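Students often ask why we bother encoding 3D structure as a string. The short answer is that it lets us treat folding as translation between two languages. Here is a chain of 180 residues written in the first language.
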Amino acid sequence: MVLVYYGRDMDKKPVFDRIFRDLGIAKRDLGDADLNATVGELADGDGQSRDLSGDKPLFLYYDKLDSKEIQKVEAALKEAGLRVSRKAVRTENNKKWTLEALMYEIGREDEWFRKTNRLYQLVTHPDKARLASDPAYMALMAQSFALLEENDMSEEQLDQAIAAIETDLARQEKETVPRQ
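And here it is in the second language, the structure alphabet:
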């Protein structure tokens, strides 16, 4: 069983319907009316939700699927051009969470990974000439790279590092644009 909360992506429901039908994997469609129920209750319950409206990002919850089934779903989603970054697999702990609480936590993790990837892109594609000639730029990139190597960096640290590099890059670009 897979729980699917469409939220802002309700237009993708027909594609999900086809994928799960073709794979022979049961799914239950959810909406905002289901946010206060636990994911365990939703997965173990019968029927479909009547009101699928919602305003949160797309979310999948894999309940009692083995890894091969999950891989099949992921491959079918990829083949259909669907990217779902917010998803969870049932655990003894999270089955007791409300859908809303789990979606919130997974959303925070997703945002942290997005920011980590953004910082990684910034520090792995530096201006090599500036690295050699600008000690402040070199220090900024070295500090940001060191931050990426930490296991417990906060979202605030990521935000600050990204902002510092992007501000520096914008300033540098402004200084190098020829004036007419």
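Translate back mentally: The beta strands are 2-5, 27-30, 59-62, 87-89. Keep this in mind for the problem set.
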